[in-house]
Amino acid sequence: MNCLFISRLLSIFACNIKLKSISAMLLKLYEKNNNPADLQQVVDLLNDGGILIYPTDTMYAIGCHGLKERAIERICRLKNIDPKKNNLSIICYDLSKVSEYAKVDNSTFKLMKPKIFRNRKEVGIRMPDNSIIQEIARLLDAPIMTTTLPHDDNEDIEYCTDPELIDEKFGDIVDLVIDGGIGGTEGSTVVDCTNGEPEIIRQGLGWLDEG
């Protein structure tokens, strides 16, 4: 009887450990040769409406499935922004995927109207030069809503660049943090393509090729 009781306690203890690891998971991914099961886990999380933090070619970002309204609203609450008023951005795998959400006409992007972005005249579109998020976007076969991590100016920048510190800060309010190595501190270049001629709104990493 005592052995049975101890066995049950050990089972409960093991279950609690498992649940705790799922609630604040830090997943290590690499530029190539990742375990397909790890990548599928990320895709399944996004399809289920989860939110995650991941590396890009600039800074770490937070995102979700771009067509899951509740997930997008969850991120907007985290950043204290109004999804109906603030500009939103999506990651697409390549230009062929961009064409599913925007029309390319004479170098101008004109937003189509997927449900989540209805009543909007423009949307940000990113194709980060980062193989981890590129592969996730390819496997997901859908846009990923993306935004920079919330950051206090008085806070150490490492909480936006070091995956372990990012997990320490955000692990309890997101579903997954992807460790893709130390991230950058400079934002991306923002180009306005809605008025016929591309116009640089913010110069960051990446340069507009005018050739």
Polypeptide structure, described:
It is a single chain. It contains seven helices and eleven strands. With about 210 residues, the chain is α/β, with parallel strands linked by helices. It has a seven-stranded mixed sheet, sandwiched between helices. Strands 5-6 form a two-stranded antiparallel sheet. A hairpin with a 6-residue loop joins strand 2 (about 50-55) and strand 3. It is globular. Mean pLDDT is about 75; it is low at about 1-25 and about 105-115.
Highlighted features:
two-stranded antiparallel sheet, 211 residues, alpha/beta, 7 helices, 11 strands, 7-stranded mixed sheet
Structural class estimated from helices and strands: alpha/beta
Contiguous runs where pLDDT drops below 50 for at least 5 residues: 1-23, 106-114
- In terms of DSSP E residues, the strand content is 15-25%
Mean pLDDT: 76
Head-to-tail CA distance between termini: 80 Å
Order of helices and strands: HEHEEHEHEEEHEHHEEE
The tally of strands reads: 11
Roughly what percent helix? 25-40%
Side-by-side strand order of the widest sheet: 1-9-2-3-8-4-7
Radius of gyration: 20 Å
Query: Counting H and I runs of at least 4 residues, what is the number of helices?
Result: 7
Coarse shape: globular
Largest sheet: 7 strands, mixed
